[in-house]
Amino acid sequence: MSKTNQDANRLPGYALASDFACSAAELEPITQFASEKTYDIVVVGAGTAGVPAVLTALEEGATVCCLQKESTPISQGNGSSGVILEDSTEIGVLRWIQGIRVRNNFRVNNKLFRFFAYHSGETVCWLDKLAEEVGYPAVQHSTATSIQYGDGERVALAGHQFGFKPEGNHQLICKLAKLAEARGAEFFYKTPGVQLVKENGRITGVIGKAEDGSYIKFNANTAVILATVDYSNNDSMVERYCGDIARFSRKQHGKTADGHLMAIAAGAHMVPPGHAKQAHDADAAGNGFAAIPLLALDANCNRFMNEQDISMPFWIDELRKLYNQPDPGIFYRFFDGNYQEYYPNAPAPEALQKYIPGAVDHPKDVFISRIGLHCCDTLDELADELGLDREKMKAAIARYNKLCASGRDPEFGKDAEWLKPIDTPPYWGIRQWVRVTCIDAGVEVDEHYQVVDENHKPIPGLFAVGTTGGDLCGNADWAMGAGVSSGHCFNAGRYATVYAITGDLAPSHPAHWSEVKHLYTDGIHDSTWSWQHK
To answer: What is the third-level CATH fold of 282-433?
Structure first.
């Protein structure tokens, strides 16, 4: 028997010793503590799900602390969304859920997605109110993704953007953590949770590891809530559960499955594959060209796919086959000075300037180190700026232009309507860099985000939220609507905590659409519902 098989048989929940080696979680029982503290709720992870859990626990009258591995709260993204039930119809909401299921090949956890759909609207309103309170209101409110169906059924969706890149949700979460401290919560930074405490079948606490290496026992009278994000930086688990991203760079760090493995050691198990991954590049040139079938070349100036009908969330499925370059996530896309004629829905040149390195002083809402759009008068200049071989790039474009002239694509079969030549200056090129943002797969949970054992029975006292808990989507690629990614983390943190404390899903201090509706007003209508007919 191989060492791998021995490990698989010896460790709980099909975990491997190498999983724990890549994580802060510890398997060997810890019995000696430098100190001991007791709260009603212990949250592990001060992020997009964890900080809302802390604030909600306070609202429900519980004592609460939060353990955080890093020295500060951490959050990604810059917004969230939710369903405003009072302006939706019952059938409209169900049709919207079905649309999400279709987009994700029906690999959506119906119970968890309904949990999101039926509670996220209140969470959006709650966040709007808190953001105003901490002096960090959303910079944009939108209802543009709302849908009115042909027979009058409708779903009302409200979304907000907190700040601009790179601040976004991170700044909001930092400010909300400060608010939670002011309201009585205790945060223990540089103190990862490393092991759960289980007594008579119930989770009664978590052991944290202080910066000096000593252990602190945090007792939880009511529940431990794990909000320790995903496993994308745990190489052992990535290779086993999501091997097609193993060669791609990661956007984040510290996501080492600490919560997953603590829960598994206490009787939990991972959700079955597939595990939905978020691997994209919305930074190089924004989203304006994400679904437009521009000519795409690899780092060696070879065309490698049919560019039509494949949008950003699915690029990685073609890129993973690029074995002839060190980082398969890097590729290049091209268009020319006629692009507005060819692609009427593409952004205007003035909207693209902030993505061109050096073109704008202090560009807003971009990661300066990640932008990768270039505009040049000649192809030679463009090749130099993109770092490509001049002759190879020009030869590839010349071949493509011949295909465009013929109206046929014998290489990949791209439809003639999308065969647009690159022959008119200025010449545009995007250096795309697809990297892994997140893997949306945690330990198995029930419809309230309570962790379950191998018999699918709830483990008393243990919840896992955000990307630590469940499989909101089990598709290979995350294809949720705008705002659902962060929105489901905010929402799960809030409502799992309500359930843990009250046994119900009714917050003691709910927020209401009527309190924030004015933020979504366009000055003419009561709200900006922009109904899209389907």
So the answer is: Flavocytochrome C3; Chain A, domain 1 (3.90.700)
